Amino acid sequence: MFEDMKSRYAFGWMLGASIVSIFILLQATQNVFIIDVALQLVFYVVVPVWFFSYYFKKRGAKLRQVVFFHGTARWLLPVFGLTALSMAFSIGMIWLLLRGLMPIAPTAVNFVLTPQPLPDALWYLIATGFIVAVIAPISEEFVFRGLILNRLIAKFGFWNGLGLSSVVFGIFHINFFGAFIFAVVASLLYLKTRNLLVPILLHMANNVIAIYQSFVNPSFPQWLMVTSINDLYTKTVPNLVVLIASLALLLFVIAQMARGLENKVEKDRIFSE
Description:
This protein is mostly helical.
């Protein structure tokens, strides 16, 4: 279903619509919060809905073919476990990157670790939280797992397509390595279930924790999170242990999920042609 979609068109329309929206909003209002929320809605809602609606209608496909509840319940526990693992790996990876940057770019590290005040506008925090926790995961999974992953696998093969799509996903996120591993796991979940709802739930769970850490408790979990330069050194042992353990477990899970999946994906692709 997704293999014949042109991924460059999706990104092109998202970028173009965002640029046009900026100019319109700048003329209509000077409120940066309104502009930010509006741009997020254009990028995550307006363009993706239009783009996928067009292709679904063109192929006579139904949304329930790629997003459905049947069989999803048995994946809920694994999704929560994978969320914990991916978040642990991301936290450990951030510690490692900051620790590595400290000798060569201490000013940059200090800036990253300096708490930034939250906006006073409660509606903006709620709107942004909802977009990041609910809307963005749905949109990004359709684009990255539904569209880009399928296109790249069809063109370059299973592992090359999976790896390239995960690299693209990582480039769009600050924590590249954490996002890359997350994308690999999300891609395998989708390919194994052929149900975008499963990686969407994983993505939502991941983003909810990220929002909690950003808006509510930046030091969660207290024993692991690095919130000061001193923490880079005093929390070396727990971060190193968590980083190694989470990476080992994630690689094991990835290997287990990928077992026999390459042949299954290729077989499904042949029969769908």
